[in-house]
Design goal:
Blueprint: H1 3-12, H2 15-22, E1 31-33, H3 35-39, E2 43-49, E3 52-57, E4 62-65, E5 72-74, E6 84-88, E7 95-99, E8 104-107, E9 115-118, E10 127-132, E11 138-142, E12 147-150, E13 158-159, E14 186-193, E15 196-201, E16 206-209, E17 217-218, E18 227-232, E19 238-242, E20 247-250, E21 259-260, E22 269-274, E23 280-284, E24 289-292, E25 300-301, E26 310-315, E27 320-325, E28 328-333
Antiparallel strand pairs: 1-5, 2-3, 3-4, 4-5, 6-7, 7-8, 8-9, 10-11, 11-12, 12-13, 14-15, 15-16, 16-17, 18-19, 19-20, 20-21, 22-23, 23-24, 24-25, 26-27, 27-28
């Protein structure tokens, strides 16, 4: 299972969202959106760029807010877009969004207007995430092992088959490089540090690159279920998370050793953010929000008063989180960090 599949499940349970999307009077093509309209949108990912919040979702929605979610505008986009699943800003002005039909969109004005950079509808492979390692080199990943690369700043995107040697057990000879199973979904890609990237995905898929994406190595996974995301802590530790509330943390540069992080909730975790003070926030199904203030060594649940699914948490206004998901965008109070004794 991946974020696209979960989004489909949510979509099927939201007839009001379908009605709102089909009625241009409820959801205008651009301009201001009412709070009622925002509660009817299914948002799948979000990012901060400067003081602006940009979120993407079903039916190609892209919305943005300049006041921490108090009011929203619909961005200018190409017509008839499919579901969008990821958004990313490598710098304050430049934004990238990905989605179904291998759509890749680019913005050069902080997410206010978007243009199509690439699509491959015939492939029928939704893209789930995107990252750039420099101004020219970027990667988009998605379902069924889909992996696209650009080396010219997103002017062209080329499919690439990842070849990886299997993890080598002690006393065993190294195996010949081979492609991961074609049906494995790549759900997230993050920059771990300069030159180092991590892909997390379906059925315990973990792939690591130590040369800015030129070659990849399969990592031994501590869990056979799916991962939906990954995040780097301020101290350099890397966390992966996903189905049934599983969270794992690694502190070694090779990402070979993973420690399970206690989480009593079994709700799948879908998205993450790292706050300016170093706190890590995870969000997922059944209204689940978890907060860590010790670099991901432990997490505490944050009451949200709902069972609505969340896909992406972000910093909101003072002492608040913005949560994007099944019912649009919602702000919840975030307790301040405890003062040292």
């Amino acid at each position: 299972m991946n974020r696209a599949a979960i989004a489909f499940a949510l979509y099927a349970a939201l007839p009001l969202a379908v009605c709102a999307a089909a009625n241009p009077q409820v959801l205008p093509q651009q301009g201001a959106l009412s709070q009622q309209t925002m509660t009817r949108l299914m948002l799948t990912d979000a990012a901060r760029t400067g003081s602006r919040v940009v979120a993407v979702g079903d039916r190609g929605y892209i919305v943005y807010s300049d006041d921490n979610g108090q009011s929203w505008q619909r961005a200018v986009t190409p017509p008839n877009l499919p579901m969008l699943t990821g958004v990313y800003f490598p710098d304050q002005k430049t934004g990238w969004a990905v989605g179904h039909d291998a759509f890749i969109l680019k913005s050069e004005d902080q997410g206010q207007t978007w243009k199509q950079a690439f699509s491959a509808p015939s492939e029928q492979k939704p893209l789930m995430d995107i990252v750039f390692v420099d101004a020219n080199t970027g990667f988009a990943v998605g379902t069924y092992g889909s992996f696209y690369e650009t080396t010219d700043g997103g002017k062209t995107w080329n499919p690439k088959k990842i070849l990886t040697p299997a993890p080598v057990a002690k006393g065993k000879a190294a195996a010949e490089p081979k492609a991961p199973d074609d049906d494995k979904h790549f759900n997230a890609i993050i920059k771990v540090s300069d030159g180092h990237l991590l892909i997390a995905g379906e059925a315990g898929t973990l792939l690591k690159s130590d040369d800015n994406g030129k070659t990849w190595t399969r990592l031994a996974s501590p869990y056979k279920g799916s991962y939906f995301g990954a995040v780097r802590a301020d101290d350099g530790a890397v966390l992966i998370f996903g189905m049934r509330g599983r969270i794992y943390r690694s502190t070694d540069a090779g990402l070979k050793d993973w420690a399970a992080i206690d989480n009593k909730s079994l709700a799948s975790l879908m998205g993450s953010t790292r706050l300016p003070d170093g706190a890590i926030v995870l969000a997922g199904l059944s209204g689940t929000v978890l907060v860590s203030r010790d670099q991901g060594k432990s997490f505490q649940p944050l009451p949200t008063g709902t069972i609505k699914a969340y896909a992406a948490p972000l910093l909101g206004g003072p002492n608040a989180l913005l949560l994007m998901g099944e019912a649009g965008a919602r702000e919840v109070p975030l307790p301040s960090a405890p003062k040292p004794q």
